[in-house]
Design goal:
The protein has 14 helices and twelve strands. With 343 residues, the protein is α/β, with parallel strands linked by helices. It has three domains: 44 residues, lambda repressor-like DNA-binding domains (434 Repressor (Amino-terminal Domain), Orthogonal Bundle), CATH 1.10.260.40; 133 residues, 3-Layer(aba) Sandwich (Rossmann fold); 129 residues, Response regulator (Rossmann fold). Strand 1, helix 5 and strand 2 form a beta-alpha-beta unit. The longest helix is centred in the first third of the chain and has 16 residues. The protein starts with 14 loop residues before the first helix and ends in a 6-residue tail after the last helix. The relative contact order is 0.11. Keywords: DNA-binding, Transcription, Transcription regulation. It holds the Pfam family Peripla_BP_3. This is LacI family transcriptional regulator. InterPro entries: HTH_LacI (IPR000843), LacI/GalR-like_sensor (IPR046335), Lambda_DNA-bd_dom_sf (IPR010982), Peripla_BP_I (IPR028082).
């Protein structure tokens, strides 16, 4: 008996409905959802169009019970200051959520409890609770304890940053040395002959690669390299009668320090001094003049990391697979666009 005024129950769209609408088998629909790399691009587009048109939503709870998969990726998020967040890693998180969502995955943020430093307990906890299918790591060091422990306990992981020898090589990263070499060529093409590289005094491998790449290319081009200067000595560097006419940095915040030092010395960035940054954070676009900076392909990095992780879950990793090295993009703005002073 139907209750007066009640709406009839809406029929749930099934995988068979999608298969019929797309004129494919149910297995092809399943592959589209779970192993899209196995489906021809034209078929993939047709099935996805049918899924969207019919509003099909897979029963993930039933699938998890059947396969043991959670369709959830754990992201060991770097510790950050909420009042001074790292815009690069915030951008990577956004790209990661989008990349995971595009293949039907969720992202679970993981971090040690306040005051705790040992990430092994976090990894052990999600493994024991079977909360995630695999992990994504970022800011990875060659001897990273997170990567070493994940490999030890056997949970699949992929990384933004290079893992060390003896660890799984499922990573994506940029070629830092090639990126700063492009900066050196950019400055040389604009007539600069005396240049300097400004960066943090740290042994972090990606920062060391940025400095090395710039120095090596500058030397190859015959440029004169002024001594490296930390942010605290910038004004002294700019007072030197033989000061560099162009300064490259390993991050956008260091570039901001140069802007402030130049202003204090009566110099104008983009006219008297060329400056370049790294990361192309929102800061770069809002400086005066806007900052030339190297942009990381965060969406491509995130998609590559997710793809590498899912390939492990499906036992679809080519023998001898290595990490993926990607190129940064030099975004040229007014801070370096003008000719060299006196050129």
């Amino acid at each position: 008996m139907t209750t007066p005024g009640a709406r009839p129950a809406r029929r749930v769209t099934t995988i068979a409905d999608v298969a019929k609408a797309a004129e494919v088998s149910r297995q092809t629909v399943s592959n589209t959802l779970n192993a899209p790399h196995r489906v021809r691009p034209d078929t993939l587009a047709r099935v996805n169009a049918a899924i969207e048109r019919l509003g099909y939503r897979p029963d993930q709870s039933a699938r998890s019970l059947r396969t043991g998969e959670r369709r959830t990726i754990g992201y060991l998020a770097p510790v950050d200051d909420p009042f001074d967040p790292n815009p690069l890693m915030a951008g990577f998180l956004e790209a990661l959520v989008d990349a995971a969502g595009a293949v039907g995955q969720h992202v679970l943020l993981l971090r040690p409890a306040a005051g705790e430093q040992d990430v092994r307990a976090v990894i052990d906890g999600v493994v024991a609770a079977r909360q995630v299918d695999g992990l994504v790591l970022a800011d990875v060091l060659p001897d990273d304890p997170r990567a070493a422990h994940a490999a030890r306990v056997g949970i699949p992981f992929a990384a933004f940053g290079r893992t060390g020898p003896g660890l799984p090589q499922h990573w994506a990263d940029i070629d830092n040395a090639a990126a700063t070499a492009e900066v050196a060529r950019h400055l040389a093409a604009r007539g600069h002959r005396r240049v300097a590289f400004v960066g943090a005094a740290t042994a972090l491998p990606w920062l060391a690669a940025r400095r090395e790449g710039f120095h090596r290319e500058a030397a190859r081009l015959g440029l004169s390299l002024a001594p490296a200067a930390p942010a605290g000595d910038l004004r002294a560097l700019l007072r030197d009668p033989d000061r560099p006419t162009a300064l490259a940095t390993d991050n956008d915040r260091a570039a901001l320090d140069i802007y402030e030092a130049a202003r204090a010395e009566g110099l104008q960035v983009g006219r008297d001094l060329a400056v370049t940054g790294f990361h192309d954070t929102p800061l770069a676009r809002h400086l005066h003049p806007p900052l030339t900076s190297l942009r990381l392909p965060l969406r491509t990095i995130a998609t590559t990391v997710v793809t590498r992780l899912l390939a492990q879950l499906r036992s679809d990793v080519p023998a001898g697979a290595e990490g993926v090295e990607l190129a940064a993009e030099l975004v040229v703005r007014e801070s370096s666009a003008g000719a060299a002073p006196g050129s």
